[in-house]
Amino acid sequence: MADPHLRFRTDDAHDEPAVTLDSFLGQSNATAVRIESGEDARALLPHLDRLSLVEVSFPKFRDGRGYSSARILREAGYTGELRAQGDVLVDQIPLMRRCGFDSFAPEAPVDEATLAASLARYDYVYQGAADLAVPVWKRRHG
User: Against a cut of 0.90, is the pTM above it?
Assistant: First the structure.
């Protein structure tokens, strides 16, 4: 894959570098911020209207705190680009998308055919998330 970024958005990619959360909270003009693992995404809630990009760090594939950050931001109404960056594995991308990620910057290249198969693997979901997919139990029982 030539482009290391995977985007599931139709708008232009945000090209401003993301600043750290501390730097963002200390200045008034940044529109892109990076959340490191363990930082509280709720600190961004008063600033969602001016953000175009939130990049969430995944230092290790087994560190799931970024999933919570994504869901917190999406459920609070954030509509800008939400990028998972770091040790992002192809089989995690469908779940990350359900939590609200719409952009990915994995450290290792992702095979397009494997990604397509991963995204198409399941027709139904079993729990609610930040996306609009209706859980299978709700389809059955209303």
Answer: no
